[in-house]
Amino acid sequence: MKELTNYFTKKDIIFKQINEIMPKELGSRKKIGIYHATSVKKEFYAIFIVDAKSRFLRKNADDLMNLCETLSSNLDHSFKKKVLLVSSPLCSKAKAYLIENKWSVYIDFM
Fold first, then answer.
1. Which among 58, 2, 53, 65 is positioned nearest to 28, based on CA atoms?
2. Mean pLDDT, to the nearest integer, of 41-69?
3. pTM of this prediction?
4. CATH C-level class of 2-106
5. Cys-Cys crosslink for 34: which of 13, 21, 25, 88, Cβ 3.0 to 4.6 Å?
């Protein structure tokens, strides 16, 4: 969690509250870090951290969108900012698809 706050502090985003959600709570078996956070500017963030050795493909982007919808319905909240932090290579089509759907994608995490 400390790495997460340090990463966003470098981007001039300060969080007032960060909560981790286990993927099991959303009915997923994926190894992914899921956080929902509130910034000082009262913006609500859904943060997904993917740390894999294989390339992040378009199929993974679809799964991520479904996971975000499940998160929104479980918390009864629609998030203003959706962020994906990836440490593995990212497919250009997956990145374009996420950006088209108003996601922020950062490849340089960790």
1. 65
2. 91
3. 0.91
4. alpha beta
5. 21
Whether the per-residue pLDDT at 51 is higher than 70: the answer is: yes
Copy the structure tokens of residue 30: 């994926």
Report the distance separating Cα 5 and Cα 74, nearest Å: 24
Enclosing H/E stretch for 33: strand 33-39
The vertex-32 CA angle with 97 and 1, nearest 5°, equals 110
pLDDT tens profile 80-91: 899 999 988 999
Which tokens sit at 24? 């099991």
Q: Are 80 and 44 in contact (CB under 8 A)?
A: yes
| Token couple for 10 | 């470098």
Domain boundaries, the chain: 2-106
Largest CA-CA distance found in the chain, in angstroms, rounded: 35
Judged by DSSP in three states, 17 sits in: strand
Residue 110 pLDDT > 80? no
